[in-house]
Amino acid sequence: MQIYLPIAEISINVFLLLLMGGLVGFVSGMFGVGGGFLMTPLLIFVGVPPAVSVATVANQITGASVSAALAHARRGGIDYKMGAVLITGGVIGSFFGSMIFALLRDMGQVDLMISLAYVLLLGTIGGLMFIESVHSMLRNRRGDMPRPSRRPRTWVDALPFKVRFRTSKMYISLLMPLAIGGLVGVLTAVMGVGGGFIMVPAMIYLLNMPIKVVIGTSLFQITFITASVTFLHSVNTQTVDVVLALVLLVGAVIGAPVGARVGAKLKAEQLRILLALMVLVVCGKIAVDLMSRPAEIYSVFLAGGLH
Amino acid sequence: MARLFLGGICGLFIGQQAMAERMVADLSRHVIDITSRFTGTQLLIFGAIERKIIQKGRGYGTAVKGSDYDVIVVVQSKRRNIIIRRKEKLGPIWANREFLTLENVPGFYALASTGPIKSILSQQQLSRIGVGFGQLKMTFKQQTSPAEAAAFRQGFIRNMRAKKLYSQPQGTISILDGLLFRAILDFPANMPVGNYRVDIYLVRDGKVVLAEQSPLEVNKAGLERFIYNFAHGYPAFYGMAAVLMALVAGLLGGFMSRKMSA
Fold it and tell me: Which of A43, A105, B2, B19 could bridge A48 with an S-S bond, Cβ 3.0-4.6 Å?
């Protein structure tokens, strides 16, 4: 059954979209990641204009993360003060991100920018994750236990404007979470990702936040940042397709619990290696597409239009 | 919708005087609605050729004896500027570099005819009425060399053909008994919205004897129209509505999956 997407202006099989939403939901449930980094490239592969893919996936992530964020809130797993600082940074970041996005679109370079950003980011994250999980697997096989360490003092502690975060039991500078939030805001606006895969490691390794509030706070801020990006893209480029977002969301809501159940049966390292490989495959596919000679080197765009 | 008549008056205008034939033509519909189930559509263009015409005070006469007619139908959307970009190899990757802006070209162009247009009309005639891709006036906003302009034009046509936005199937119109003709044109799902114009040419002996024009409108309809107009007319409210929709759908979905697993 075909469905016509009013903003993307294409007709596409609704079951294909549901399947994609379900698959990405499955993956995100299994690994506990948002899945935007898979959804956006998938949409581009099936022919949704890249600009529409990015903006719409941001819209979809808002819906996909709000329920999980609430669940963490009920368990007290959110540091609201930290979340507010991250969101402040994120809103500023998404504002600039969406401006860069609109500018590049007018220059005809937005597709290239999206591809390059994906190759760079996925390559780095996937590579690091792969190396790290192979290391920890080898360590486990040798029977070494990672020693729990005291929170080390780093250059982060030397920054000014220190504030106390009660929930996280931290006393750190505002600048660091603001900068991290800002970076994630830019990424959400230009790549259509929630940015959890940056936010979570940054919270653990840079901010040294306690693990029990990391996921909840990350989800909390993702809900707000993707909402901000949805709004900004709607205003600046009119590229948010609510019909597409809704169909993807339905798929994701079905797929996520299934993925979570499967994920619970696998070992943490196996999961991490699987996720790393998946990230690297997506990265490789985009890189190959960028480097191979296109079948048609000319492309057409309506002057001042959508595509 | 207005039926199209073309009789003696227009015949006189074209210069055939009392020797003119008559043509009546119409479209199966004058409005195409794009709804959520839209996957492209077909348009039927049909008409009749009347060879007998009223002679001044002397009953009927036949315009031309033993002559064959040809029909050419052209459907095109509103003209607008289109940017063409060309990818070049930049280090290891392919990226858009050069671009040219084509001025006033239709976003959709379909031509149907009773036979190859080059055998129906001379090159001169074709360019006079501007029929066929080759005759589209494609001028660039920017200064460029003739070789570059030609390469960009060809790239443009290839793109539009691949998207099924430009087509010129020839020999798809049949004329029944030299009287009735019908043409079926295909429209893809990605057709641009807006006002279209349909031109129907009746050709005899290598000359256009009658030219008829008819309007066609392509609109998004129903919910699709509402969403599109909302997004473009009130972008800030649309953005807020999109966020709200995602929140409600997400909460509802979360609630349902908790119920199901509980």
Answer: A43
* Tokens encoding B73: 């139908």
A257/chain B closest Cα distance in angstroms? 7
Residue A275: C-alpha distances to residues A28, A126, A127, A197, A278 (Å)? 10, 8, 11, 11, 5
> Considering only alpha carbons, which residue of chain B is nearest residue A12?
B39
Report the distance separating Cα A208 and Cα A152, nearest Å.
Answer: 9
Up-side HSE of residue A59: CA atoms within 13 Å toward CB? 33
Enumerate the domain spans of chain B. Answer: 4-220, 221-262
d(CA B221, CA A142): 66
Q: How many CB atoms lie within 10 A of CB A116?
A: 16
Please count the residue pairs, one from chain A and one from chain B, whose beta carbons lie less than 8 angstroms apart: 189
User: Do the Cβ atoms of B85 and A298 come within 8 Å?
Assistant: yes
Radius of gyration of chain A (CA): 20
Q: pLDDT tens string for chain B (262 positions)?
A: 444 444 434 444 444 444 567 888 999 999 999 888 888 899 999 999 887 666 666 656 555 555 678 899 999 999 999 999 999 998 888 999 889 999 989 999 999 999 898 888 988 888 888 888 888 888 898 888 889 999 999 999 999 999 899 998 888 898 888 789 999 999 998 888 899 999 999 998 888 888 999 999 998 888 888 999 999 999 999 999 999 999 999 999 888 877 776 6
This complex has an ipTM of 0.86
CB contact under 8 A, B246 and A301: no
Q: What is the DSSP letter of B191?
A: P
Of A1, A65, A112, the CB nearest to B96: A112
**What is the third-level CATH fold of B4-220?**
Immunoglobulin-like (2.60.40)
Contact A299 B40 (CB under 8 A): no
- Name the token pair of A50: 């890249």
Q: Which residue of A has its CA nearest to B231?
A: A238
